[in-house]
């Protein structure tokens, strides 16, 4: 035992806590024996593992004995496996996950290849229980002194926190989008400097008079061109470039709705959206249409002159008070109310001084509130000469300057007694409520604190056809659809008990016996002590929206069936195309072969009997047959690029280039051509199609070589994001492999760069250059089969360049 401790004292070197535990452990009881007998490869591996600051774990020997370093130690937690699994057999140390990780270990031990996984769930026992833990790790073979694989070295990092953070972020984003869609306001978000519409809810689509597909993923000024001349771009630019919030009230704007240009009024705001780095990457717009309110306000303003005439003829005293200079101007009636002669002046000071001391606080509070909502209203007592006390009712409207500071107040003063004031105010309030409620198309109703409905506006009676007496006798539930009554009562009782808002969708019976969907809401009205005094509710017809949703669902099902039929038709068309390909490759070529065979026999056997003109005609006939056969073969190849099974495989392009060189060995040699290629990409492609692509392009370079100039062909590739390349059609965030094929042949003019990829298109006569005009069309089809893009550039007598961009997938 002392010999072992002596041997252990010098191995391993350092290694922190785990190095000390290895030195102190009695290894004679393990399958790998004492350190003195360990292979040098094991010692070297352990020294590297213990000195590494990255989490590492080692399984060694036939029992896969366990070793790990200090960086791995925190992953074991507390009240778990540490330090007991040091030197323990793998299956004994990790029983709860052995069935999961043993096949991975065997794959490395038997195959000799490393394996790698990202964010893989491997739960095990730690901190007193089994925990769900996510890992990113690599298993690599560990070898003995003779190079045999005897263990597995693990490099790993725990990613549990990252995985849960990503999940929470995705959940949060879904909730935000759902919240925006369900918000009662009109909401839209725009991304990027072009303000591409990203998220829209139903309210904003209704406001714009558009459908979602007409605006989503499109710049807002293109989707709504009528906004271009309304200064909206300048507002968006300012918010996007400065981050300053913009808001407007009752702003007139024009939208094309129902085919007509309509002017509406909107309260809205623009606010900048920031990405994770704090940079502005979009704008959120929130608005409400207030056209009805603005038009109503204009009507009020238009009637102010008439109102002034009425006021002059009434018992109201009118006044105008300027906040800045404290100037107060009052009417004749105002003087009378305050007991002043017509010639006596009234000013702010004697006005305020006449207010009863106990009511000064009421007046102050009323002014403070008016600065928020623009409405001044209060009642107070005033002490007039000879200590005469009167009650006055003051009402007015506060006007604000451009900086939203109170500028002046225009109002009226009424002389009333306390009893008359209370009665009149109650009657006026009741009358205003009923007048407003009866003028609205929505159903308005009220209920007492016990939930008993005690008032319905005229809209309810018009809709149901009930009289007030009948509705009182049969009860309001009689107009609710029988299937909705139970949930209606339950929801209403819950609101009465809890004091929370009432909200429900249900159906009301119309006077003609039909039912229509309604959205009903009710809010409790509270007194100053927070006690419920009554309930005020409304019901809005949403039947058309419901019908629209049902119709939309029907259309989706109908469109799905149409797509299924189209897929079936497409499959039949593919079968017919395959039949055509069979005829092209067999039946059409058979008579061509006979023409070529018989013409060859005639030339061979009757050559001397033919005139020179006959010999020339036979040769022309043979050439025509060859061209026809080439055309059929090229058409067949083109069709195969469309209908063949697309089996993608990871393929080394360097190997494909080597195969193409071998296929074109004689042609390259006869042209004395040089074909150079860099170390090319490995891509997930359809090998036989891409081999055809390379054959066609390289053959083209040989075919269109300049006479007396040795052909020189270069092939290179580079990987990068779409934004790294100059081709506009690429997705900026997608990774591509850019393959470039350049030659020094006859080239072409740039204006033909698109035309050369069309079927049967030739830039040169067939008497000068052989071919069917299909080769480059096949090349383009193959690139499109790989979801890629191809572009051609050329200069006459200087050569051509083909740029291919394939996405990495």
From TrEMBL:
Q: Which SUPFAM superfamilies match?
A: ATPase domain of HSP90 chaperone/DNA topoisomerase II/histidine kinase (SSF55874), Homodimeric domain of signal transducing histidine kinase (SSF47384), PYP-like sensor domain (PAS domain) (SSF55785)
Q: What class of enzyme is it?
A: transferase
Q: Which GO terms describe its molecular function?
A: phosphorelay sensor kinase activity
Q: Where is the Histidine kinase domain?
A: 583-809
Asked if the record carries the keyword Phosphoprotein, the reply is yes
Q: Which reaction does it catalyse?
A: ATP + protein L-histidine = ADP + protein N-phospho-L-histidine
Q: Which UniProt keywords apply?
A: Kinase, Phosphoprotein, Transferase
Domain PAC positions: 376-428, 502-554
Q: Which residues form the PAS domain?
A: 303-374, 429-499
| Assigned EC number | 2.7.13.3
This chain belongs to the protein called: histidine kinase
> What is the species listed in this Swiss-Prot or TrEMBL entry?
Algoriphagus ratkowskyi
